[in-house]
Amino acid sequence: MNTDGAEPAFRIWGADDIIHGPLDLLSLIQWVKAKKVKPSTWIFVEPAEGWMRAADLPQLKLFFGSHQPAAPAVLARAREMGVTPEVLRRIKVLAQMDLNQLERFIEFIEVLSAEMSDIIVTRGSHGDAMYLILDGEVRARITMDGKESNLATLSSGDFFGEISLLDQGPRSTDVVANEQTLLLKITMNAFERMRKEAPDVALPFLFNVSRSVVTRMRLLTRRYNDSLHFSDIFTGG
Question: From CA 61, how far away is CA 100, in angstroms rounded?
């Protein structure tokens, strides 16, 4: 039995019908990574003095989150709008996820359709969601003194509004549909649910979004530096 303040110990009911252990948490995780422990494997937890399925153990949620099947009704509604795990791979930040992860991902999104010239987000409005472009094209614009300046054009596979998942700040631009566009919306609340219920889906998604944002920032910095260089040449600086 585990004493107060001691590290929890785990015993594994193996496929050979032999109880292995006790193991500490790091050793247990190594068994999971080696696929000796599956979501359905029974594990005895000494502090709780009871058996649990590996997938239900809080310490292993990160490894087994996506084994839980997505709700059939959610998948059915998504399929009606043409959203399947295979189609989701068109989006760059989802391309490396496996089938189970993509099915779970569908649970946390809203599918929206925008017609040409529809305003999807408005500059200055409260941001509480990001959008993935499944099909179609949008533009980010700023309108000043009645004149529209286009800042960027985004198409299938791109995303926008990701900063709203972090700070819920005001939108920095309008985003308008250039044509009929199919969008996936992820609210901050939905992402929080994803993080708690399917961390093995949320973490790679957030990592890929962050990596894409860094790439954008580097590109913008390079363009800015190039513009300064050309300005110096033009002015003789």
Answer: 14
